[in-house]
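Limitations
The structure tokens in this dataset are predictions for the assembled complex, not deposited experimental models. Users should treat interface geometry with appropriate caution, especially where small molecules or nucleic acid strands are included. An illustrative entry is reproduced here so readers can see what is and is not provided.
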Amino acid sequence: MQHLEHPLDVNKILRKKKSIKKCLLLQDDLIEKNIAILGGSTTSELKNILEIFLLKNGIKPKFYESEYNKYYEDALFGSDELDKFNPDIIYIHTTNQNIIKYPESKDTSEDVAMLLSNEMQRYKSIWNSLSKFDCAIIQNNFDYTKDRSLGNLDCYDIHGKTYFINKLNDEFSLNARKIKNLYINDINYLSSYIGLRYWFDPSLWYQAKYAISMESIPELAFNIGKIISSIFGKSKKCLVLDLDNTCWGGVIGDDGLDRIHIGTETAISESYTAFQKYVKELKNRGVTLAVCSKNDFENAKEGFSHPESILKFDDFTSFKANWNPKNHNILDIAKSINIGVDSLVFIDDNPVERDIVLSQVPSVSVPDVGSDVVEFIAHIDRNGYFEPISIADDDINRNQYYEDNKKRANKQATFKSYDEFLVSLDMTAEIKSFSSVYLDRITQLTNKTNQFNLTTKRYTTGEIDTITLSDEYIKVYGKLTDKYGSNGLVAVSIGRIENRTCHIDLWLMSCRVLKRDMEFAMLDELVNKCKDQDVSEIIGYYYKSSKNSMVSDLYEKFGFELKETSNEDTVWKLDISSYENKNKFIGVSND
Amino acid sequence: MTREEIFNGVQDIFRDIFDEDGMVIKNATSSDEIEDWDSLNHINLVSAIEKEFKIKFALGELMTLKDVGAMVDLMMEKLKL
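Predicted assembly:
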């Protein structure tokens, strides 16, 4: 499974994900965990690839995935499904696409502060609301936007998007330090690591609402996998190092202390020094170090007495320098430190030694670091072996903050009801009869909408054109706008009139406006139009498909009477003489 | 590259994405015939094709592709074959 380690073979992962998954499912001792993904954009492929990385780390996930862009609604108002799911981890996949309002050039600094506070309030109420699950919440911070209309000024003028995003990210960090169980998935770092121009793919955004490019998805999943593994205590604990040509250049036994490469004299010395510095940083934040080297013990020890050596003999908890096979020494190291063999990471420039350890003690992590010390750091760093979830000293503060936060949470303004939330959206809709400008969009919706679609009847552009011009049909489309902007044309209903009866041939809505009461606004308009045409009753049809179970009870909700049932298909009737408008939250403009 | 070679390359991608080693596609194969070929898998297919053949489809081009044959024809055009 080398392609699941740094450097990732992104294309292979994307193409072979299904067979990789099958393979990983054969492992023993997988632990099952419930992972809820609340997305501010499409998360389908992210979920698939995340599954692979979790399986690789011994975690078998069960997923809950929010409806498209319903992260906020799911978090604040919950859903029975999510409650029942009882998540172990909630991952909130939001990106700069979810920022509602950036500063405008006329804004004062007070205005900008207000925008910032509004934006933060949304996330604070999300975290607050999700705290009832008492599980880990992994929250993306924000990636930069690819464009920055203020150029370099964008990062320091208060009207800049870059400036705004930096401020938000600072606030996120502050909150993550305070709130127990809140972890930041640092996509701001990840997107710069990958490169912003590769990170975001506008075509993919417009086509499928993926807020990051396809090739970035494995990197993102890899990163989330590291955090989740760390939360479940699967981070490694001990870094085991070879010595010659790993900790210093040259062979201490042959070259002697004066001639090994370490220090700042030459490029080669500097590269080994950089590696030692990195290892020392790991040690300083709690990673245990060990040596596993084929060397005479005294020679090996002497290497660290070099005046320029950053690492010292005392930095190592276990020091095995002898002529035994390395796989034996590795087992001894684990035993002497009293940790599991699967907590070890072994770094050696020699591929033969790596092979022996990997083949004889497969639970040790042995990255394929090559023989160039310049690459070693990346293999340790990118693979996230030692991903910490906190630094020990912080734990004390953390608990205090947790208590404080509970008090704060009570005062935080959140919406008291879903109705209140709907009111806050300031929704307006245009619901009118078909017109030629929307032919393509309407046809497209009839052909690609599967879930919120009662009959799943597909139409050609020609058919829609005919219906548009015909008096025998009531045909309405709906466009919905809210305070975040327009959702576009999202609902279509077609009714065929026969003898004062309207048969609903098509009733569909895009899932991007689920739970907004748009369907009620559509029904009100349809009924109005029926009345205008002297229709007395409406007949609704539900044809069961593999994907439309979410609307099996729609007509019931609408107040229709069940007339017929055959298999799972149903026919419904509504007498419209006593119909009362159902929409309460959307301001409608009609024909 | 001949049309057949492109076609075989596309078939390999279908086999990977849908994880069916023996899958055989034809010019007339369309999303109606393959159950898992939904809009999300369509994106996966297209992006794998773009990577494999080092081409890029423009935004509007994908809407019109009705079957595998049309897809391969468009690829031929892009590869200037």
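Some entries come with short summary sentences. For this one: Chain A touches chain B through 21 residues (CB under 8 Å).
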